[in-house]
Amino acid sequence: MPESQESTAPPPPAPDWRMFDPAPVAMAVTRGPRHRLVYMNAVYRELFGDRPLGVPVTEAFADLRQRGYLALFDDVRNTGAPVSLAAAPTEGASREDGGTRYYTFSLSAVGSSEEERGVLVVAMDVTEQIRATERIRRVSEERLRALRRFENLVTANTQMMWVTAAKGGTIEPSPGWERVTGQTWEQFRGDGWLDALHPEDREPMEAAWQRALEEVPDEFRYVYRLRTVDGTYRHFDVRAVPVREDGRVVEWVGTCTDIEDRWREERRKDVLARGAAVLAESTKPRSAFAALGDVIVPSLADKCGIYLFRDPTYQLTVDAPLVVERIAARSREGLPPHPARLGEEHIAPDSAFARAVRERRVVHESFDPAHIPPGTAPPDSMAWLREVGAHSMVVVPVVIDGALAAIVDAFACGDRDPIDATDEALLRELLEQAHDPLRNVIEFQRTQRVALALQHSLLTEPPRYDDLVITARYLPSPAAADVGGDWFDSFVLGDGAPVLVIGDVAGHDIEAAVTMSRMRNMLRSLAADREEPPGDIIRRLDRATQVLDPEEGTATCALVRIEHAPGGGRQAHYCVAGHPPPLAVDRDGGTRFLDGATSPLLGMPVPDEWRISAIEPLPPGGTLLLYTDGLVERPDEDIDEGLARLARTASGLARADLNAFCDTLLAEPSVTGQDDICLIAVRLPEEG
Hints:
Elements: E1 26-31, E2 36-40, H1 42-48, H2 57-60, H3 72-79, E3 83-90, E4 101-110, E5 118-125, H4 127-156, E6 160-165, H5 175-181, H6 185-188, H7 199-215, E7 220-227, E8 233-245, E9 248-258, H8 260-281, H9 285-291, H10 293-299, E10 303-308, E11 322-331, E12 343-347, H11 352-359, E13 363-366, H12 379-388, E14 390-400, E15 403-413, H13 421-433, H14 435-458, E16 469-475, E17 486-492, E18 498-505, H15 510-529, H16 534-548, E19 555-564, E20 570-577, E21 583-585, E22 591-593, E23 598-599, E24 614-618, E25 623-627, H17 639-652, H18 658-667, E26 677-683
Helix pairs in contact: 8-9, 8-13, 9-14, 14-15, 15-16
């Protein structure tokens, strides 16, 4: 062939890339300097999605975030040197399961001519292998953190260490445990360690430990009391962590740290805080002091009693019994009911209780539960103390401003540690915190004694008069610590007519008693000044009271003159001002209330003509009863119900002796004791 003749040899045929279709790995081919995508096998499409052929890879994989990978195509095509990427993270071009996936890529040059030269891409999805490796790494880090946590735990708590099996039960000796508790390895192993716990803590601790074995928390923590070698119990903080291998717990490792001192300080703060709370919450000093019993038990003792001296000037003599008022008796839940009642208590003068009072010092003793010394407690508590195994006590007298105000006793029983010096100091600190409420109690008692003396001085004995029998009663309320304003009076006027008076001043304090005294004396003077109808006497009393003391409170009153009736027999000439009406009972049981002369209570601005009088005949052989509202009023019922009940009861007593008549009325179950009660009754002679 001549040299000038141009070669017409055909170009080599293009490779048939379909030969890669069965390949188990992802394969793709690009061609030319723009890296047009000319082939993808099925695996490649599965991994990266179906991409358009004939376009550059930068367009076919426009969603590929790691675009730096595409720059490798130029290097491979231009240099012919292959490139590999191991575990390359890829986002945006991954499968539908989302998230980052990892691929190992191999890029190789293919084709000989400049135009046809391209890049063969081989890719393998290694995401699961990478994730498995990451899981192993995290597990290793978690185990390392657990190890470091336990190392810190041991460093901070080196007193005792122990090891249990995965399901509990100690499996290694613990020298620290043996040193603290005295338990040998044979006694300690398995669940034997529970025997060293306080009996009250064993069951709760065992239940908490079983929950931990089942739920496997990162750390188990508990506080229990542990019996030490000297036989006393101390509080220990228990911590334990699980040890895992291949995701399963193989054992537990733990420590015990003595926290008795810290526990006592926390208890001290808690007791004083709760004491301050109950003192602040109660509006009455007496009940506030009594409420301290709920703080003392069970924090400091299993049983306590709180007693007041009704007379702060009380002095105990050597041979006289100690008289106190028990205002609180508390015993720990779970013990048999304590038999002690509230109220007055007489205690032998040679008892430890009386010794603490006489010497004004704390008495602190321990004793054999089987041989509790006589006089250790009030008589009604001794049998109970023997039953519950009392073994130590402390009696603390409380002195306020030089006056003996109260006394508190506390007992430890059964498995509880004996009351020690720390407990005693805390009890005294708690009682010192009650100084102000107790001072108020003392001041109140002093005021109450004056008021009671004043009140009782005014409740005079009824006069003996002709053929009338007059009887009076006063019943103070046991539920109220205050002095009431109820009063009664009876006297004979200059014209020979006996007068019965009953009244009630609003309030329950010394002022009410003073007001009652003033009104009672003024009423006597006004009634004796002139023989006028009861309505006029009540009117003058009301006016004088309001003029002399405009700030005076309100009061009720009923005044009855017992007069001879014109046709024979007796009649009641009366006036009632805001008071329950007198009750007339005939000898056959018939009853009627005298309500024909009622007007508003005293202290109200009412017209003079409202203070009226009325006259009603009295039944021969019958009874006339005057009373205060405490006999008929109940918080949960209407006053009419109380009046009807009084009439029924009095009807059944129509023929009873007058003393029995009055006593039975006061003893009725319906009398709740929420208020003072006064009553005065007159028994009329038989007709003729």
